[in-house]
Amino acid sequence: MWQRIQTLYLLISAVLAAVLLFGTAYQVADPDGLRTVSYFQLQKPYFAILLCILAFLIVLALVVYKSRILQFRLAVLSAFIALGMQIWLAYMYFTFDGAVFKWTAVFPLVIFICNMLAARGCFQDQMMVESAYRVRERRKRKKK
Q: What is the pLDDT of residue 33?
């Protein structure tokens, strides 16, 4: 499991999703202007729910390493969820006044890139296994 490169990419994605879940991507000033409020956890719980789903899919892709096709599909699905979250953050960046974005706001983009690289690794592994299977089948037919 750990010798495959896609496991490393999925692990990086899982850590970034957990950091984003428990951290903040941007903050909005209070009406009094005295303190800042973490926006995701208090006023937009559906973003936190989407992050939980994303983290679950990434961890599930890490666990099902024996089924390369399922791991590939989970990596692609979580990559597109992360891309959607990044588009959503970009929309908020351009529409909200007074919002202060942190450097963690680019984590969904990094998660997207890591998950696509992991999916590519899963696909390459699957193609290698299928080609080895074809070679074995040819050798069996030649012996007969």
A: 64
